[in-house]
Amino acid sequence: MASAQKDGIVRALHEYTTCDVSDALCKLKVYHGGFLPGLTMWSPQRQDGATKIVGPAYTVQYAPLDDPRAKVPGHYIDSVPPGAVVFVTCSPRTPNALYGGLMSTRARASGAVGSVIDGRFRDVQEQRDLDYPVFARDVGTTPPGPLFKVVGVNVPVRFVSDGQDTTINPGDFVVGDVNGVVVLPQALAGQALPLMAKQVEADSKMAVEIQKGMTFTEAGKRFRL
């Protein structure tokens, strides 16, 4: 996908919530709606505020030190492109934190819009002082180095949770807000955006009439065709 096209999709997605994205994906038969369960906002506030991140995924895969794959040279955080969402995961899961404050310092300086950690992260107050958005499963204190290494950067990664198995490809659109985190595959973005617009328009009309006394059922029949 061309850079200008990606930029246009990112701008458009800023108009919608993660719930709007999920509604559209469900209509496209992605029945989990792109939702990544267990990931919540920790910074700049804990599950509060109008923070929203939208951007193409820059993926990072951790694995145990004895994994046969070679360790990626250098540090992945030095290659984050502007506008990206850093998406870090580890297989198997670990109580070690996969991500810390210095990573956010560098990511923010590079123009990243936020980070999503499929696991634990640390340096919570440092993240908040940076006013940098972080979504994660939980917090921790121990770094990954003693047990894990980075084996892939900008490669497809798997997100497994609550019986759901989702592949996140580099460049897929990651959207995060107070509702949670969703992933919109690049291939579906062009179809999903018009559905979001239609749904939001219908829901706005429903809300007006419901406040006037119309039942939800009647409003749904009238506006959700």
TrEMBL record:
Cofactor(s) required for function per UniProt: Mg(2+)
Coiled coil: none
InterPro entries: RraA/RraA-like, RraA/RraA-like_sf
GO molecular function, one term: 4-hydroxy-4-methyl-2-oxoglutarate aldolase activity
Top-level taxonomic group: Eukaryota
Keywords, in A-Z order: Magnesium, Metal-binding
Annotated binding of substrate, by residue: 100-103, 122-123
Pfam families: RraA-like
PANTHER family in alphabetical order: 4-HYDROXY-4-METHYL-2-OXOGLUTARATE ALDOLASE (PTHR33254:SF28), 4-HYDROXY-4-METHYL-2-OXOGLUTARATE ALDOLASE 3-RELATED (PTHR33254)
Protein's name in the database: RraA-like protein
Species this protein is from: Trichocladium antarcticum
Higher taxonomy: Eukaryota, Fungi, Dikarya, Ascomycota, Pezizomycotina
